[in-house]
UniProtKB/TrEMBL annotation:
Stored InterPro entries: Diguanylate_Cyclase (IPR050469), GGDEF_dom (IPR000160), Nucleotide_cyclase (IPR029787), Rev_trsase/Diguanyl_cyclase (IPR043128)
The entry's keywords: Coiled coil
Domain GGDEF: 211-346
Gene3D superfamilies, A to Z: 3.30.70.270
Coiled coil: 139-180
Name assigned to this protein: diguanylate cyclase
A family per Pfam: GGDEF
Keyword Coiled coil annotated: yes
Amino acid sequence: MTASVDTALRGPEAFSLSRRVIDEMETAGVWPTPLNFELWLHYLGDPEGALGREIRRILDAQEPFTEGTADMLAAEYLPRGRLTEEIRDAGRVLDRELHSISEAIAKAHRSQTAYGQTLDKASARMDGVEGGEQLQTIVTGLTAATRKIQRENESLEKRLEVSTREVARLREHLEQVRRDALTDALTNLANRKAFDEQLTAACEAADAEGEALTLAVLDIDHFKRFNDNWGHQTGDQVLRYVASVIGRVAGAPRMAARFGGEEFAMIFPRERVDQVKTALEAIRREIASRSLRRRSTNDDLGVVTISAGFAIRRPDESPTLLLERADTALYASKRAGRNRISSAEDLQQAA
């Protein structure tokens, strides 16, 4: 889902947009299946986008909007559809290469078997050889058979070399597809799926190694009001700016992700509490230190601030409970006036 549509669905106009989608689909005679609904959300949420223009062309041409049409549009324009198609293409290429390798190996096996039979026959014939002419005939046949098997082995080597390069290229492509599937398109940070996987892995590693693990949740203050005043495109600009600051601080082994909407999360493996506080303070101060301007008009947008909360993982604590405690700390920062950082441990001591 594009960033503008995703943002719209998390704002005050989400319900009116959804109702308008149903009304428009009914007017066009399109069944409200989950896939059609998602396509229409993109169409009405971003009518000038590539998908919006294509749906409008189909409607203007009065072409029937069938399940096949929906599948085609999803494969071409929706990120998940494109990802599925890329995986299918990769699967077809891999299947072709494996079939080619299998055939080449089977052919080499047949050739080796035939060559072995030739040697057995030559050995049997040599037992009864009486003259040089017969021996020369046998040796000539063995030489020809040897050259043939050498040529076929060279052909097999070349075929395997080509297939190895193709499989390596395919592996690299699939790795890029995997990275794309785990990256938020708007901010280029990890997405929620990548975050969930990494948090689970980090908790398991912390248990195995007996190391510390801290989770922080960050949220842009008053982002809804900002979106209402300046529009979603400018809101996207702010999200990218905040993400860039977080990303610079979140070098390995830390991990930063867009958690959803205007919320971000950071994982701090094997770091002391003071290191975590220093990193979060650096992010908070840098974001609050700049007055932003709208790119299209150069309007002064004012200062954007963030609030954050973090929690130190307890032994054997689940990712869900750790996230809940970090969220509680975040909302404590919001209630205390925003533009600040709170610790779940400090809140517990105060209670």
